[in-house]
Amino acid sequence: MPEVYVAAGSNVEPEKHLALAARELARAFPGARFSPWYRNRAVGFEGDDFINFVAGFCTDLPLEAVIAQLQAIEGLCGRTRAAPRWAPRTMDLDILLYGDRVMDSPTLRLPRPDLLKRAYMLGPLADLAPGLPHPTAGLTIAELWRRFDQAAHPLIRVAAGEAGPQA
Fold first, then answer.
1. What is the reported pTM?
2. Is-catalytic flag, 89?
């Protein structure tokens, strides 16, 4: 059964939408685990700060069914599929890893290439699964995070009182 890791982020009422997404992820994928929440600047556009976390869970669902479930959760949070790519988000759920699967299609690349470039993905994943080997980089997530330029991409851990209930 593959272990799946998903990045969650929002900069539109983020506390509300992330709490909803966490509850729905826990409902859809029993046993889901969650990283701490982090605040960071918007990437790719000028906008309000995002709050992000990473969720991890095991599932026997095929990749396509996991994607459908994530899109349904995004919809519950008010995300429309027609939203521009670099814009404010009520919810963005991105599969980072689906077991050790490696793929490159027009609609999905695994492992997610941004994982090695975005602090808001790699940092929370390192909290959740530090010993996990990256399927193509040949290093553990903790080692990749240690080598990452964290000072250039600061993450601010959000206290539970500020972010609302964490899963």
1. 0.92
2. yes
